[in-house]
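User: Now give one protein:

AI:
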Amino acid sequence: MEPYETLIRDAQRRQSLASELKQELTQLGRAEAFESEIDTFEELAALLTRRREQEMGRLRSTKERLLQVGNVLALSSSALEESLRLQGDLNLSPQDAGVLASVLQHLRSENTDESSTEPSCFVNRDASDFGDPDIEERLAQLGCQIKYRFDDGLASVQSHLS
């Protein structure tokens, strides 16, 4: 959901800027001295709108590809309870504790299945919160590495596929 929130916030900011720019161009268009330069700025306003559409399209495409190959972890009541403990134990925000609790519960459920010997990798760019040695140890105990760069996560997955 965070990428959507970021895109929406950026899109709203750009839309506001484009609206202000269009209003200003309308005012400037009344003076013949600026008439030749207005087209350039109108293209900029259109670019801001196109940019949002492109970003939303890329996000949709990425989401669809991820849903084809990934697992969506449910936020269960037991994960919510664990997240409350993690907030206190590890001084995590409610959001980060919820993410970690869901990941830990997923790893535990995967580890109970004896046929599951797949290595796990948790990719999260938030090294300032998830870089805690206690968190890394909890994940490692369940056979999971944490990677703080997406390209490192991709390299880890690719190395296990080959």
The mean pLDDT is 84. The longest strand covers residues 120-123.
